[in-house]
Give the backbone structure.
Amino acid sequence: MGWTDERVSTLKKLWLEGLSASQIAKQLGGVTRNAVIGKVHRLGLSGRAAPSQPSRPVFRPARPRPAVAAQPAPRREPVVRPAAPVPAPVLDLPGTATVLTLGAHMCKWPIGDPSTDDFSFCGRRSGGEGPYCVEHSRVAYQPQQKKKHSPNELARSLRRYI
Ligand SMILES: [Zn+2]
């Protein structure tokens, strides 16, 4: 039996519906399975998608996220702080020199009220800046403008004493 237009269109229809060559041959009648396959090839229909193949979900590897460049913490230069002036005990002591005994290399830090007899001079060896001993020169020449400490800096400096 030859391929009439009707039979060819039926073949196309059945093929595209997903029937196998042998099923189509049975439906058409008068042709073999091989004849159907040959006709299908000649018609260029062989590229149909296999109907029984379940469409599988395609797993794509998750695209790696662009790595967020970790911001390196800004490196802070260690701040060299001058040692906080610790009140030396000597400041609380009475002076050891008077106007009469005060020498050239003695601390001229006035102690007490000049109008009283208790008034004296530190009188200790002047080893600091100016005519003062180390302790008194710290007091005399401490920076006028104290930098405003942020709470963080304050906590950090406090930690040194804990
Ligand atoms: Zn002194």
